[in-house]
């Protein structure tokens, strides 16, 4: 028979939003359970230096998330390594099924499932995923020591990935579809000054090509966005850094979403369209998508859940 765990507050997700909600809900004596999901610690575990977390001029993303987890645990949050596979918000208590077979029954839910990397959607990109095509420089950069690498994108992630990959690569080419970056100026300056980095403006990846035996990338064909001209760019690694989409799979059919799938919350609140269900962090935030704003929303969600639960009693 399936194991059933009952809780006043179930927090789904272990990024800055989830762990902050865990701290606040624990301190409100709600004995929350937090389910970590497939990526314990969330997106910051895929990066290196974080320079904009208040109180730390330099902190490694994975270290920061270990500290957040320990903080939530210290306050009394029960943290479980499991993945929620489906939710039933049609009646209360809310029911969440999980991959482990455990059924979680909760009076209130805090959704903090964050966001996941976007891909270009090319068949050749799919074919070489894990064999030269990656969306995580911290995870895979080491494999490209002394090789040429292409990074695709023009936001903070692309610029940071390009800079980080210079630790390994002989040369990094940043391919961007416009001639203007949307990254922070401090990062742009570092990129432009870096001797190992070249920029290729107004270009998109047309195709990733390589060998089958052994499977690996040999280069990309890039297309000029204005002239349509195709050129060949030899490289061994292709890092796709074109942004992230909200991880809304659990709730996209039951909660209102907008702007490409972000969960809608009431103004100045984390309340969703279902009373007792709250959403925090990148799952709901199409605008800021920062660790500190996610943590702020995690705090709001726990405080709102606490007040709502008190009203129900
Ligand atoms: P996430 O961090 O995305 O975490 C989502 C969590 O939900 C994960 O733990 C996942 O396992 C869990 N989850 C998902 N589905 C399920 C499920 N079905 N069941 C259970 N759990 C589930 N921001 C900054 O402020 N400064 C930076 O320097 C910075 N650098 C970044 C570098 C990179 C490479 C990236 C990708 C992002 C960076 N960001 C940075 C953005 C920042 O990481 C995000 O804004 C922040 O992590 C969002 O937090 P979150 O809690 O909403 O979700
Ligand atoms: P982003 O800001 O949304 O940028 C995505 C980039 O990829 C854009 O330059 C976009 O081009 C390009 N792009 C999107 N789809 C494309 C496609 N199909 N083909 C080619 N190019 C495509 O995403 P992000 O850089 O991942 O950042 C996400 C959030 O995390 C942001 O809020 C960011 O500030 C935050 N973050 C912060 C830090 C930091 O604070 N240090 C670090 C990383 C991330 P256009 O510009 O033409 O639209």
Could you explain how this protein is built, in words?
This protein has 313 residues and is of the alpha/beta class. It folds into two domains: 181 residues, FAD/NAD(P)-binding domain, CATH 3.50.50; 122 residues, FAD/NAD(P)-binding domain. It is 25% helix and 31% strand. The chain is built from seven helices and 21 strands. Strands 1, 2, 5, 6, 7, 8 and 21 form a seven-stranded mixed sheet that branches. Strands 10-17-11-12-13 form a five-stranded parallel sheet. Strand 1, helix 1 and strand 2 form a beta-alpha-beta unit. The two termini are 31 Å apart. The model has no long low-confidence stretch (mean pLDDT 96). The site of flavin-adenine dinucleotide has 38 residues, from helix 1, helix 5 and helix 7.
Tell me the CATH topology of the largest domain. FAD/NAD(P)-binding domain
Radius of gyration: 21 Å
Structural class: alpha/beta
Corresponding CATH architecture of the largest domain: 3-Layer(bba) Sandwich
Number of helices: 7
Task: Count all strands and give the number.
Answer: 21
Number of domains: 2
Ligands bound to this protein structure: flavin-adenine dinucleotide, NADP nicotinamide-adenine-dinucleotide phosphate
Which parts are unreliable, with pLDDT below 50 for 5 consecutive residues or more? none
Largest sheet: 7 strands, mixed
Strand content: 25-35%
What general form does the structure show?
elongated
Q: Look at the structure and name the CATH superfamily of the largest domain.
A: FAD/NAD(P)-binding domain
Helix content: 10-25%
Reading the helices and strands in chain order gives EHEEEHEEEEEHEHEHEHEEEEEEEEEH
What is the CATH level 1 assignment of the largest domain?
Answer: Alpha Beta
């Amino acid at each position: 028979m399936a194991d059933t765990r009952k809780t006043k507050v179930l927090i789904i997700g272990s990024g800055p939003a989830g762990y902050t909600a865990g701290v606040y809900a624990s301190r409100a004596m709600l004995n929350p359970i937090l389910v970590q999901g497939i990526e314990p610690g969330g997106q910051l575990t895929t990066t290196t230096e974080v320079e904009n977390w208040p109180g730390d001029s330099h902190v490694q993303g994975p270290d920061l998330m270990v500290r957040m987890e320990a903080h939530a645990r210290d306050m009394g949050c029960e943290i479980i390594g499991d993945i929620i596979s489906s939710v039933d918000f049609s009646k209360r208590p809310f029911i969440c099924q999980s991959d482990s077979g455990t059924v979680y029954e909760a009076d209130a839910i805090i959704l903090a499932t964050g966001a996941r990397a976007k891909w270009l959607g090319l068949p050749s990109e799919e074919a070489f995923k894990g064999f030269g095509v990656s969306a995580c420089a911290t995870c895979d950069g080491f494999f490209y020591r002394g090789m040429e690498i292409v990074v695709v994108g023009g936001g903070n992630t692309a610029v940071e990935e390009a800079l980080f990959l210079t630790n390994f690569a002989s040369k990094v080419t940043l391919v961007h579809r416009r001639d203007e970056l949307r990254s922070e100026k401090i990062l742009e300056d570092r990129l432009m000054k870096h001797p190992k980095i070249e920029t290729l403006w107004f270009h998109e990846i047309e195709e990733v090509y390589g060998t089958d035996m052994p499977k690996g990338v040999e280069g990309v064909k890039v297309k000029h966005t204005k002239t349509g001209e195709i050129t060949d760019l030899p490289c061994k690694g292709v890092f796709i850094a074109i942004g992230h989409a909200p991880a809304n799979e659990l709730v996209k059919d039951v909660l209102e979403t907008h702007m490409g799938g972000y969960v809608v919350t009431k103004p100045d609140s984390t309340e969703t369209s279902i009373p007792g269900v709250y959403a925090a962090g990148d799952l709901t935030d199409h605008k800021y998508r920062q660790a500190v704003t996610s943590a702020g929303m995690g705090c709001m969600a726990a405080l709102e859940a606490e007040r709502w639960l008190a009203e129900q009693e």
